[in-house]
Amino acid sequence: MKIVVGLGNPGPEYVATRHNVGFDVVGDVATRLGWVASPSDFDRLAKSKFDGLALDGVITTSCGSEKLLLLKPMTYMNDSGRSVLAAAQFFQCAVIDLLIILDDMALPCGTLRIRGDGSSGGHNGLKDIERVLGTASYPRLRVGIDAPPGRVPARSYVLERFSPDQQPLIRPAISRATSATLAWAEKGLTPAMNQFNVAIPSDPQTPKPNKPTPDVPGRKPCGDPSPKAGNS
Question: Is residue 169 part of a domain?
């Protein structure tokens, strides 16, 4: 069982804002998998579960078939952990089998970074998830949104929509983030890191891989016992 969580805020006023990139990627993943006809259909077709909106199905991985849950927490960003923990505990999902997708002001707009652990970097959604899980050792996919310009407060900046200059960067970034999410779900963390932790390529279909990065220590392919969410 794998769980992909896109972070964001519910409500029409937050649609397409910088802080809702995680929602956008999850909707695109569902579309790519054929679970919905378009990202805008996600909320209409999803079930209200785990203090969020959820769609699930079966995907084909390098180890065979596996169940995948796509989740948008409806708790607002600062309380995202409640939704994540509810889903993880219900499915007894190991923290290594969670992927959190979020926006990141520390990265240039359109840049992706996928990691197996790390700090919250000041992101309130990650802070709350780390608090409830009791660990920072879970995969996360960051989508760059640029730092706020001038003296614009970070809180205001993330709740605004992308600027005209950013639009041509974020649209393909959401598509690449979808590909990175599916690579993580189907092949594992290390292949996804090696393929997508690169500078924005001129041809998004042929990124140059980085030097291979070790996977999470102690994690073996497919079905190994791992710490369960909420027990660490």
Answer: yes
First to last CA, the chain: 19
Does residue 154 have a pLDDT over 70? yes
Candidate list 18, 19, 72, 176, residue with the active-site label: 19
Give the CA dihedral 206, 139, 182, 85, nearest 10 degrees. Answer: -160
pLDDT tens digits, residue range 13-48? 999 999 999 999 999 999 999 999 999 999 999 999
**Planar angle of CA 109, 111, 115, nearest 5 degrees:** 135
Can you give the CATH number for the domain in which 58 is found? 3.40.50.1470
One-letter amino acid of 107: L
The pTM of the full predicted model, rounded to 2 decimals, is 0.86
**Which H or E element spans position 169?**
helix 167-187
Asked about 123 being catalytic, the answer comes back as no
In a domain, 206, yes or no: no
Mean pLDDT of 171-187: 97
Which structural domain range is residue 106 located in? 2-196
Closest CA relative to residue 78, chosen from 120, 48, 109, 17: 120
CA pair distance 128, 156, nearest whole angstrom: 20
Here the tokens at position 196 are 């997508």
